[in-house]
Design goal:
Strand order of the largest sheet: 3-4-2-5-1-6-7
CATH topology: Rossmann fold
CATH architecture: 3-Layer(aba) Sandwich
Order of helices and strands: EHEHHHEHEHHEHEHEHHHH
Distance between the termini: 13 Å
Number of strands: 7
Structural class: alpha/beta
Helix content: 40-55%
CATH superfamily: P-loop containing nucleotide triphosphate hydrolases
Strand content: 15-25%
Number of helices: 13
């Protein structure tokens, strides 16, 4: 089992959208995937057609078993029309109670210990996180194998990216003390990219100059994104032949390649 966390300490960079579509894309390709919604807004939860509820809170604070908090996601929500979904997708839902988790748990390894229970049952766990760092983030870092950093090609998003890298490096020291391996940086994904905007082009060049091959193919700003969201479908379902779907499959190709290393 591999654990991937999406992080950027700047909101509105497409973190949830990317987390949901990576989880769904891997499920389409045959993986058993659990998406853990660690954001009190619960947007990953509702994006997959589930209702907001304290799934993650119940798991970590109340000690609920996974069978009581895992919600299966119907392939009708995300599957490509005419093609079978080869794997399975589950969501651990969130709601406003997720905000209280950091003050309710005292064990930094709470996330590690609970999600380790899925070791022989699923292939991939993906965490969608809130932009505001907390002790819950620290616990998730201890459970994480690799991080994906979504970012817009704009100053404030870059600032959030830098802060996120800093907190990862701080958590490396804690992991070393406990004999845990280094958290890998799987990739940096430029989101909502507008090729016609000079500032986006210049900032993308700066991003690549600083981080090199860690920068993955950009995901373009496209009208299909809000259209799909409005009707409650993922892009794979709503517009499987669209440029947005192609952008996503490029990203999922990268993720799958990293998983199979």
């Amino acid at each position: 089992m591999k654990t991937i966390t999406l992080v950027n300490e700047k909101g509105g960079v497409g973190k949830t959208t990317l987390a949901v579509h990576i989880a769904a894309g891997l499920a389409i390709r045959g993986y058993k995937v659990v998406l853990a919604d660690a954001d009190p807004q619960g947007h990953a939860t509702v994006s997959l057609g589930a209702k907001k509820e304290p799934g993650l809170y119940d798991l970590l604070v109340r000690g609920a078993p996974f069978r009581d908090v895992l919600r299966p996601v119907s392939p009708d929500r995300f599957g490509v029309p005419g093609y079978p979904v080869k794997g399975q997708l589950y969501i651990v839902p969130s709601n406003v109670e997720t905000r209280s988790i950091p003050i309710q748990i005292s064990d930094a390894f709470a996330v590690v210990d609970r999600f380790r229970e899925l070791q022989d049952l699923v292939d991939v766990v993906i965490f969608d996180t809130s932009p505001t760092p907390s002790l819950l983030h620290g616990s998730i870092y201890l459970a994480t194998d690799s991080i994906i950093y979504p970012t817009k090609c704009e100053f404030l998003s870059f600032d959030g990216l830098v802060e996120s890298f800093t907190h990862r490096e701080m958590m490396q020291q804690t992991r070393e003390r406990w004999g845990l391996s280094e958290i890998g940086v799987m990739g940096i994904v430029p989101t909502m990219f507008r090729a016609s905007t000079l500032v986006h082009q210049e900032n993308l060049n700066k991003l690549r100059a600083k981080y090199g091959d860690l920068v993955w193919p950009e995901m373009y700003m496209r009208t299909v994104w809000p259209e799909a969201s409005t009707v409650g479908q993922l892009v794979f379902r709503f517009a499987p032949q669209s440029g947005a779907a192609r952008d996503l499959w490029n990203i999922i190709d990268r993720v799958e390649s990293e998983l199979n290393r």
